[in-house]
């Protein structure tokens, strides 16, 4: 993710939820995933280390990091 401008990427997304552990954004403008090139659904930024995610559905995940924080790009199946 070093070649990706994370701030620019996040500015294109819609903020959805934030708590002490995570911050989520929804991809409402069809931005391509920096890892696989396919449009992703949500971006999850893990703010707490370690962080547990409670997933309510089966997802494909692409993972990267930005400024020492894990970032997860979700793809609904």
Number of helices: 1
How many distinct domains? 1
Which strands sit side by side, in order, in the main sheet?
Answer: 1-2-3-5-4
What Rg, in angstroms, do the CA atoms define? 12 Å
Strand content: 35-45%
Helix/sheet category: mainly beta
Total strands: the figure is: 5
Estimate the mean pLDDT confidence: 89
Q: Cα distance, first to last residue?
A: 24 Å
Share of residues in helices: under 10%
Question: What string, H for helix and E for strand, traces the elements in order?
Answer: HEEEEE
Oligomer: single chain
- Uncertain segments are none
How does the major sheet shape up? Answer: 5 strands, antiparallel
Shape: globular
Give the SSE layout.
Elements: H1 6-11, E1 14-18, E2 22-26, E3 42-46, E4 59-66, E5 69-76
Description:
The chain is mainly β and 77 residues long. The chain has one domain (6-76). Helices cover 8% and strands 40% of the residues. It is built from 1 helix and 5 strands; from the N terminus they run H-E-E-E-E-E. The chain has a 5-stranded antiparallel sheet. Strand 4 (59-66) and strand 5 (69-76) form a beta hairpin. The longest helix is centred in the first third of the chain and has 6 residues, at 6-11. The relative contact order is 0.25. The model has no long low-confidence stretch (mean pLDDT 89).
